[in-house]
Write a structure and sequence with these properties.
Blueprint: H1 8-25, H2 29-110, H3 117-142
């Protein structure tokens, strides 16, 4: 019968072992502070997202009649603004491309060897060779020397 019921000293040792195991697996102070910071930040962001959704829905409820009534004005305004912005951006893009191209040509003719200059030189030599071949063929064909 003594084997079935452990003594008080054995029970205290088991409790101490159990508490040591729990303490070994418990989070440290930095982890606890990080968890509560995460919990607080998550709660605040959840609250803000709820407020945002509420404000958007109320705004749509309030401003939908105004949007529906004034929609015949918005479409032409949006079209004109889109065309104006697209024209401005394309003009700026073409201007930048022109400046870049002129800068490359300037560097090429000044002899600074910009990127791709060797390919231009190769193409120019190929065109000159082809032109001389065509000239020789034309001379042979016409019989003129």
């Amino acid at each position: 019968m003594a084997d079935r019921y452990p003594s008080a000293a054995t029970a205290e040792n088991q409790a101490a072992d159990f508490l040591r195991k729990i303490h070994a697996h418990s989070p440290n102070t930095n982890q606890v502070v990080g968890f509560f910071t995460l919990l607080t930040a998550g709660g605040i962001l959840l609250l803000l997202s709820g407020v945002t959704v509420t404000v958007v829905v109320l705004g749509l409820i309030i401003f939908t009649p105004l949007i529906v009534v004034s929609s015949p004005v918005w479409l032409p305004i949006a079209t004109v603004l889109f065309i104006a912005v697209a024209g401005f951006l394309s003009t700026c893009g073409f201007g930048v491309a022109a400046v870049a191209g002129l800068s490359w040509i300037y560097k090429y003719f000044k002899g600074r060897h910009p990127p791709g200059a060797d390919r231009v030189d190769y193409a120019r030599s190929r065109i000159a060779d082809r032109a001389s071949h065509v000239k020789d063929y034309a001379r042979e064909y016409s019989g003129a020397e």
